[in-house]
């Protein structure tokens, strides 16, 4: 997970939810990517004070390499460099880490994370995530992209579907072998020049991996609870069982609770809330 000032409250709630629903919490190792400018000892102290027995490591993420590659999206929160840190996990984490489960900070697990982490990636796949083939895939890219065959042919010969990058099982060895960080960066460089999509770190993931991921049961990422990218209105869960509630979209439960305009499901998030809003740890 990433941890930063804006989302620390979410991260702490997510950690608590993971531990509470785990049958073997002492088997879980957390790896946190933090901004290189954050006060690491304060972040460490904050986590340890709430979770004294948690096994975790912090990795400073230097924004300087990715910042020049980020183009403005439709929601400024998506342009935060730490939002792109998941692209760099394979190089930030030590090479003895072969596989990792990436989690966004705006979610709550209500089932045993071990079950999700055990998902098999088969012989070739690098990623497992929840995939939605009924979503309008075309809408994730601009007409500029679709009208340029040199670009859009990247999706020829694969059944590309939208997937959500907020919950991903990642094979870091395969990622390193395939140099996927570089492949994603190449699309970000193209985006800088010709605007081929409107969102943040998601579309380059789709460009590289859509159609080639292992689909995960939708219950592991009931996303969209934060509403859309503009209004952040209340949204209901999709039909079916729920193992992860994910407040993706503009509306974050801690912000709506503070504003005294919570949605129904925000009360569930509140039951994992450990921090008050007066908290700040940037140096
Ligand atoms: C970082 O946080 C620690 C508390 O854990 C504090 O003592 C220290 O002064 C902080 N450093 C800076 C540069 O703010």
Automatic annotation (TrEMBL):
InterPro entries, sorted: Glyco_trans_8 (IPR002495), Glycosyltrans_8_dom-fam (IPR050748), Nucleotide-diphossugar_trans (IPR029044)
Membrane topology of the entry: Single-pass type II membrane protein
GO MF, any single term: glycosyltransferase activity
UniProt main location, coarse: membrane
Pathway: Glycan metabolism; pectin biosynthesis
Record's subcellular location: Endomembrane system
Keyword Disulfide bond belongs to the record: no
Keyword annotations from UniProtKB, A to Z: Glycoprotein, Glycosyltransferase, Membrane, Signal-anchor, Transferase, Transmembrane, Transmembrane helix
Annotated coiled-coil segments of the chain: none
Top-tier EC class: transferase
Highest taxon of the lineage: Eukaryota
Enzyme Commission number(s): 2.4.1.-
Keyword Transport: no
GO CC terms: Golgi apparatus
TM segment ranges: none
Similarity field: Belongs to the glycosyltransferase 8 family.
PANTHER family reported for this sequence: GALACTURONOSYLTRANSFERASE-LIKE 1-RELATED, GLYCOSYLTRANSFERASE 8 DOMAIN-CONTAINING PROTEIN
Protein name: Hexosyltransferase
Source organism: Gossypium davidsonii
């Amino acid at each position: 997970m990433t941890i930063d000032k804006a989302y620390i409250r979410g991260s702490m709630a997510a950690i608590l939810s993971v531990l509470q629903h785990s049958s073997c919490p002492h088997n879980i190792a957390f790896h946190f990517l933090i901004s290189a400018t954050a006060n690491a000892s304060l972040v460490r102290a904050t986590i340890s004070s709430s979770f004294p027995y948690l096994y975790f490591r912090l990795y400073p993420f230097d924004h300087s390499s990715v910042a020049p590659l980020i183009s403005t999206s439709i929601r400024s929160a998506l342009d935060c460099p730490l939002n792109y840190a998941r692209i760099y996990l394979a190089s930030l984490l030590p090479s003895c880490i072969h596989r990792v489960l990436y989690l966004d900070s705006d979610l709550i697990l209500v089932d045993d994370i071990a079950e999700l982490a055990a998902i098999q990636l088969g012989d070739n796949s690098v990623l497992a995530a929840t995939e939605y083939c009924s979503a309008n895939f075309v809408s994730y890219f601009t007409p500029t992209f679709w009208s340029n065959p040199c670009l859009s042919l990247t999706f020829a010969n694969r059944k590309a579907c939208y997937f959500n990058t907020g919950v991903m099982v990642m094979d870091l060895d395969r990622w390193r072998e395939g140099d996927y960080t570089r492949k994603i960066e190449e699309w970000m460089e193209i985006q800088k020049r010709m605007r081929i999509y409107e969102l943040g770190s998601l579309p380059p993931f789709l460009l590289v991996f859509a159609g080639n991921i292992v689909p995960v049961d939708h219950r592991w990422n009931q996303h969209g609870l934060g509403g859309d990218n503009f209004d952040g209105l209340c949204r209901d869960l999709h039909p079916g069982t729920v193992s992860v509630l994910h407040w993706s979209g503009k509306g974050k439960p801690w912000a709506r609770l503070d504003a005294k305009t919570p949605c129904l499901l925000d009360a569930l998030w509140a039951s994992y809330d450990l921090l008050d809003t007066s908290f700040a740890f940037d140096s």
